[in-house]
Specification:
The protein is α/β, with parallel strands linked by helices. It contains 17 helices and ten strands. It starts with a helix and ends in an 18-residue tail after the last helix.
């Protein structure tokens, strides 16, 4: 059990893991770097953990193993390094043809009622994998032991249109309601993960309570908000896309965009834009609060407080790494994606979200590890404020030594 002093010292620190399909392997590399900087046997340094979509899977894995942060991260890395598309969704030629035929027939006959197709890909293998590899009971155990204050998994309600953050945590945490987003108490289960990772049209929605939910990145206008509502004042955000470039710098293209390029644009809008916008808004509020004297802030009913944020994101576009591993897609998916233009330079974004394979995962984990260690001093400063000590780095067996 953690001491009450240590619990209070750590309680306002959060980790946010954004969505991004197969790109979420990058987050594991960053977590491995953090595990390297912590003392052996250290408990989870992030009492508040918020995840969305594939980032939600990483969040649950860390939360369930919060009593031993390093071990839980190593197990998570082994999971990602052993992935193949077949473990995430049915991707044989037979399944793809059957799904395509179902959609085509439904369109031709004007709908099939309750037999209408629900999604293009069947991700039931992912459900089986999560049930087999994730100990959901460990979440409450970590909360009871003081190693975790709250875990939040976000999903998007198809009926209400709300971004719902399902959270499991300490008894004193309250629900919240804002425009198009709410926080709801729940016991996090495999259904919450499947709902949060249900990319629209690609994967089927999941019914939770009174409505069906899809990918949590959809309509998530404030991805940092759940952590703040749960009490965070210091946040580490691990993204899955490089920082935004100067919008004035544009490449010249004369070819009409391929279907894969258009889909990639939509997927980036779902997974990336909300986080970038929310970070920009948070930094603007921080600058505003810094310009106002503290005694003035205390007298005004603003309901605002400064939030310290450290962001780690890829140093290079992840879609450029995906093309080299296209042969790791099953034949059926390779044929389908190739026909859409997903293995061309401008269309590879789609492939980067769906390429759940060991080679690509290892590459992203290595990149995440290097990017995090490039910010070693910033990470050490961040961690030293929530740990009584930060040990000397030791060799991490799942990543290349520096």
């Amino acid at each position: 059990m953690l001491s009450k002093r240590m619990q209070a010292h750590r309680a306002n620190t959060a980790l946010i893991l954004s969505g991004g399909g197969a790109r979420a392997a990058y987050q594991v590399g960053v977590l491995l770097a953090i595990a390297r900087l912590l003392p052996k046997g250290a408990s989870n340094p992030f009492p508040i953990i918020c995840g969305t979509s594939a980032g939600g899977i990483n969040a649950v894995a860390v939360a369930a193993g919060a009593m031993n942060f390093r071990r839980s991260v190593f197990e998570l890395a082994r999971l990602w390094q052993g992935l193949s598309p077949e473990l995430i969704y049915h991707c044989s030629i037979w399944h793809l043809l059957s799904s395509g035929g179902h959609w085509l027939l439904s369109l031709l006959v004007g709908g099939m009622g309750k037999h209408n197709p629900r999604a293009f890909l069947n991700n039931s293998p992912l459900r089986d994998l999560l049930i087999d590899r994730v100990d959901f009971s460990g979440i409450q155990h970590a909360i009871n032991a003081g190693a975790l204050r709250a875990l939040s998994i976000s999903a998007s309600g198809y009926t209400s249109g709300q971004s719902v953050s399902f959270f499991q945590g300490a008894a004193d945490l309250d629900v919240w309601r804002r425009a198009s987003r709410v926080g709801v108490k729940a016991s996090i289960s495999v259904d919450h993960l499947m709902a949060s990772a249900a990319i629209p049209l690609l994967f089927p929605a999941v019914r939770l309570h009174r409505e069906y939910f899809g990918d949590g990145s959809v309509r998530q206008i404030a991805p940092i908000s759940p952590a703040i509502h749960l009490g965070a004042e210091r946040i580490l955000v691990i993204g899955v896309a490089p920082p935004l470039t100067d919008p004035a710098v544009r490449e010249k293209h004369t070819r009409y965009p391929t279907l894969a390029q258009v889909m990639g644009h939509l997927m980036n809008s779902i997974f990336l834009d909300g986080l970038d916008t929310d970070l920009e808004r948070l930094n603007r509020i921080n600058r505003t609060l810094a310009a106002v004297p503290a005694e003035v802030i205390r007298t005004l009913p603003l309901g605002l407080r400064p939030i310290q944020v450290l962001t780690i994101s890829p140093s290079q576009p992840l879609e450029r790494l995906a093309v080299a591993f296209k042969l790791e897609f099953p034949v059926g998916m390779r044929f389908l994606l190739g026909g859409m233009g997903a293995f061309r330079h401008q269309g590879s974004v789609v492939a980067s979200y769906l390429l759940f394979c060991s080679g690509y995962s290892r590459k992203l984990i290595e990149l995440g590890y290097r990017d995090a260690m490039d910010k070693e001093q910033e990470l050490r400063t961040f961690l030293s404020e929530i740990q009584e000590s930060v040990g000397e780095p030791d060799t991490c067996p799942l990543t290349p030594s520096r």
